[in-house]
Amino acid sequence: MDAGADHRPPGPVDLELPVPERPVTPVRVDEAAQVRYAKGGLYGLRQYYDHPEYYDQCVRRIAQCVVQAVRRAPEPTPDETEFTDLDTVPDAFAASSWHPLGIAVLAPDVHHLPPDRRDTKYGREPRDWQPFSDGYATPLAERAAELARNLGFAPEIHTYDEAEPVFLGQREARSPWVLVLDPWILHDRTALDRLRAFDARDLPWVTVLTPLADDPQTRNAREELAALLRSALPRRLSGGRAIQRGAAAGIENSEAFISRFTELADSAAQQYLNRLPLRTSPRPPASVKRPHAATGGPVAPAPHEADSQGDQEAQP
């Protein structure tokens, strides 16, 4: 148990706040905001900088639905009131069902760029790569890890060098994977050959996402980069579902990346589970620390652990 953790039940706190008035009409939520919420949730809305009001609309509408649900519930009489002993309630933050997800990055760093490639999109390590100029300073791999946590995964970020033994069968696969690929690295013949060896293996539990940087140099080199991808990933680009082929062929912007990652990470996880015999694992004690992302933040609860009986009106 963490010596610094305080597991005593929380006591009541009187914030001395006024009781909000009963809402008269539902908060208006733009149709475009509803579509984006359905695709990426509140996290996705936070990344949509052109319309920050979409996030505000959805949060207010969800809060309004919560208040309405509480007011519809009958208030118990004093004789019917029962207080739950919090010590008997299962710890919702125990690391019991977090599914690991590997995120591998195959991209140059500033010290190993292709000839004449500008360094504006790169950092000291491959995992520092940020192809999109959308005002979000965090590297793409860490953004992917944040998305993974929202999906109920415990993500781990690796370089391709670290992940390759798993991809080539030299080490046992213990999780599904997402490979995030910068096509510029395929100018390196060694990297091209290594990716061909990866592509030759049938690994449905590894999904490939190829973000295309939004700088002018990349836009001018689209045909050349597409040819390199066809040479490196002939099997991936000719088989599988259309969304998988499209994600491997090139993703144009951060919004599309969020959408593709959300769907294909879940797909890779399902493929990984399908290849394993059914097995169960004991629930670890509540004192086990929750998994953390590369940025050090705690992981959110897995989707299936949420209350399945929640108020369905809390949908903007």
Give a quick account of the main beta sheet: strands, pairing sense, barrel closure.
Answer: 4 strands, parallel
The separation of the N and C termini measures: 40 Å
- Widest sheet, order of strands: 2-1-3-4
| Order of helical and strand elements | HHEHEHEHEHHHH
Number of strands: 4
Shape: elongated
Helix- and strand-based class? alpha/beta
Report the helical percentage: 25-40%
Overview in brief:
By secondary structure, the protein is an alpha/beta fold.
Care to describe what's here?
This protein has a four-stranded parallel β-sheet. The chain has about 325 residues and is an alpha/beta fold. It is elongated, with a radius of gyration of 23 Å. It contains nine helices and four strands; from the N terminus they run ααβαβαβαβαααα. It has helices at about 30-45, 55-70, 140-150, 160-165, 190-200, 215-220, 220-230, 240-250, 255-275, and strands at about 100-105, 155-160, 175-180, 205-210. The protein starts with about 30 loop residues before the first helix and ends in a 42-residue tail after the last helix. α3 (about 140-150) links the parallel β1 (about 100-105) and β2 (about 155-160).
